[in-house]
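Researcher: Sequence recovery benchmark, item below. Answer with residues only.
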């Protein structure tokens, strides 16, 4: 399934949450960002999306994402090294944009880059003592090396992702972040279940591939 399809579904899930929970502009953008990232993150595991029939426009878009992400990250690192402070919003935006750029790439270099981003998150989570960020770091550093539609496309990964969302919810005191994370992530697996290849929801307990033909 294409990344753009997953992204669209993720945005719809986030928008639904924005309507469901008490509305503020900040919360609405948070729900949409969390949900969109959740809907895409399962495919950090490999060259699934866009790889074969990548359109010129989306290829371009991803290159642009990647470079904007690199520039923002460089800015954050520069600020940290000169002033010793980290602009948290800018850091989060740069990581999200970087990952959006990477999600369509493939190959060992890409995996190493994504893992490096994951290690950065791990370090960042460790220095701040934020467990959810540590969890996200583990996820981002590890998932690129998995077989495609393997461990990252399971109920276990969904629960792990939900735990990350729970930690973020506790920290931000915004109701519904965990639910949005789980729904966004699950939307990815459900969408993949509708493709001929299906999803091994219970892997490695069961290697059965679940698929639904519409
Ligand atoms: Zn997938």
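Model:
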């Amino acid at each position: 399934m294409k990344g753009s399809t997953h992204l669209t579904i993720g945005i719809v899930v986030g928008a639904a949450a924005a309507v469901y929970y008490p509305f503020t502009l900040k919360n609405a953008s948070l729900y949409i960002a969390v949900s969109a990232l959740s809907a895409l993150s399962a495919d950090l595991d490999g060259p699934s999306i866009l790889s074969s029939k990548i359109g010129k426009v989306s290829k371009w878009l991803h290159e642009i994402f990647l470079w904007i992400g690199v520039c923002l990250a460089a800015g954050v690192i520069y600020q940290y090294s000169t002033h010793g402070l980290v602009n948290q919003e800018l850091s989060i935006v740069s990581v999200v944009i970087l990952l959006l750029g990477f999600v369509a790439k493939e190959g060992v270099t890409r995996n190493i880059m994504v893992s490096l981003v994951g290690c950065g998150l791990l370090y960042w989570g460790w220095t701040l003592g934020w467990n959810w960020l540590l969890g996200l770091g583990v996820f981002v550093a590890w998932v690129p090396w998995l077989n495609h539609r393997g461990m990252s496309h399971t109920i276990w990964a969904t629960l792990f992702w939900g735990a990350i969302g729970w930690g973020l919810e506790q920290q931000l005191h915004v109701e519904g972040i965990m639910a949005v994370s789980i729904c966004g992530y699950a939307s990815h697996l459900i969408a993949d279940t509708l493709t001929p290849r299906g999803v091994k929801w219970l892997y490695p307990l069961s290697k059965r591939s679940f698929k639904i033909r519409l």
